[in-house]
């Protein structure tokens, strides 16, 4: 039987009274020469990054290290997940030249490991898989030594599209389940927990290193986190990231609780005990955090 541990949590009301988040959620503002270089390349090539669109707290650290997570297929998503800061609506951007521009920017940055993600494009028959495939092909052509992680959306059981997305030579394929099963209707109303598990199972069976991420602090119980870990281990997951949910705007879901770093450490131990090869767990962890470490696990 799994051990339930009692650790301090800070409720949002208490944090608001103090007019600040817990100390462990403080991050440095993005500054520095390398950050400015990435900023210039992103602007010059008219690229989208999830770092900006998702209000990632690690943008300063990652961009300062000369890395960024590029978001292809536009910056308007067909989904309306209640946790996500990316704009929702009817996308009008479908740029067939985007793979070349992304590949050239990555070459100019000289990164050793690149992360590519995208919005959901449910209105497209192939879910954008052809652009996904060509982007990876172009990156490998210009930067053959660069390793690649692709953080792909839910393909709504279009398994042909999935195969096209993951067959272009990337080393790691990630698809985030985001939360525990009981919270799906509230957190991811257009997604299905079991379908995401099936997508991860197929990614692993295709021969790719599989990865997913879960946000904590949305109201899940410890038992539900353990069950999610068991479900992920059952589909052969290689890499799991666990991080604190932060409310991007007042229009999004409120934080139910701020999870203490000691509980994150406990969850890491539990994930490893269940056979997941690599677990990145901490308040500021996001799915692409320390992604370069996940290539060889």
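-> sequence recovered:
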């Amino acid at each position: 039987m799994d051990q339930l541990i009692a650790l301090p949590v800070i409720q949002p009301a208490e944090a608001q009274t103090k007019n600040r988040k817990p100390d462990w959620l403080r991050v440095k503002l993005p500054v520095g020469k390398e950050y400015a270089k990435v900023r210039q390349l992103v602007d010059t090539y008219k690229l989208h990054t999830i770092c900006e669109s998702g209000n990632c707290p690690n943008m300063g650290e990652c961009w300062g290290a000369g890395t960024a997570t590029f978001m292809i297929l536009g910056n308007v998503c067909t989904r309306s997940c209640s946790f996500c800061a990316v704009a929702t609506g009817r996308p009008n951007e479908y740029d067939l030249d985007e793979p070349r521009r992304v590949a050239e920017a990555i070459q100019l940055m000289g990164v050793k490991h690149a992360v590519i993600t995208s919005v959901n494009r449910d209105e497209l028959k192939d879910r954008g898989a052809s652009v996904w495939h060509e982007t990876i092909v172009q990156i490998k052509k210009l930067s053959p030594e660069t390793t690649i992680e692709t953080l792909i959306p839910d393909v709504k059981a279009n398994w042909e599209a999935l195969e096209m997305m993951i067959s272009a030579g990337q080393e790691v394929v990630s698809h985030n389940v985001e939360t525990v099963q009981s919270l799906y209707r509230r957190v991811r109303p257009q997604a299905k927990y079991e379908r995401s598990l099936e997508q991860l199972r197929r990614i692993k069976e295709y021969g790719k290193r599989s990865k997913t991420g879960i946000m904590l602090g949305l109201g899940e119980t410890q038992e539900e986190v353990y069950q999610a870990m068991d479900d992920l281990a059952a589909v052969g997951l290689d890499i799991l990231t666990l991080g604190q949910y932060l409310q991007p705007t007042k229009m999004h879901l409120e934080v139910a609780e701020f999870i203490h770093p000691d509980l994150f450490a406990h969850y890491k131990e539990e994930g490893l005990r269940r056979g997941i090869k690599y677990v990145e767990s901490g308040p500021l962890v996001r799915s692409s955090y320390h992604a370069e470490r996940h290539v060889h696990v």
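The CA atoms of residues 183 and 208 lie 28 Å apart.
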